[in-house]
Amino acid sequence: MRWDKMDNKKDVKAVFSRNKESYVKSSTHAQGNDLSLLPSWLNPTQEMSVLDIATGGGHVAKKLAPYVKTVFATDLTREMLDNTASHLKHYNNIHYVIVDAEDLPFLDNSFDIITCRIAAHHFPNPMTFIKEVQRVLKADGKFLLIDNIAPENQKYDQFINSLEKIRDYSHYRSHSVSEWNRFFKTHHLVIDKEKKNKKQLPFKEWVNRTLANKADITNVEQYILKSSEDIKKYYQIIIKDEEIQSFTIDEWMVLLKKDLSF
């Protein structure tokens, strides 16, 4: 497995440029209760400016654009942004910028709302990412992070992160809630609201989104099938006629604000 931070961003570009269309159509990304909750959690208004980090297929940008003045949909991968811009061409207030989430090219205190959905597990330096978010967020702004998380249990953590890495070499790490809380505390962000969820993933769609080689897919299947019974139970792995149908992962939706006491 590759864990080098310098190589990881190259891996992200390679994977997402190759699979750009699948992330637009992915049921995991295009659907979900979290998308429907965005307006009520964020209370967007017509004078607001939004930064959507690692926009991918642009699902958050699309959801928020009708409510706000401007959305900056950013991503590390040019091909992904080009494809998303084509799909969202009727939204005149979405601007597309190639951006590294760990080095945001914006002035301090620029955005009313910052979002990052199902992407941070690809970032090799999450502490730097949070530092940058805190820097460009307005004093009264809101930051919404939605991502896959690892359980606090080390065995279950190791399983899901290893599985994700086998399936997608651009995966870096799904962090636990305690890890994220440490990142937030270090950079003076406080939790306003949070919601944990068990997200069901249809196995074939999930594995075929990043893998095409039969041997690679078989490797993922065998890793799951050979897992212990307690792991199968925790991740709610459904197997029928020796074929994996679906499984669940832990997802966290957390709304944060700046701690103005610092």
TrEMBL record:
The keyword Cell wall biogenesis/degradation does not apply. It holds the Pfam family Methyltransf_11. GO terms for molecular function: S-adenosylmethionine-dependent methyltransferase activity. It comes from the Bacteria. Keywords: Methyltransferase, Transferase. Residues 51-144 form the Methyltransferase type domain. GO terms for biological process: methylation. Gene3D superfamilies: Vaccinia Virus protein VP39. Belongs to the methyltransferase superfamily. This is Class I SAM-dependent methyltransferase. It comes from Oceanobacillus piezotolerans. The lineage of its organism: Bacteria, Bacillati, Bacillota, Bacilli, Bacillales.
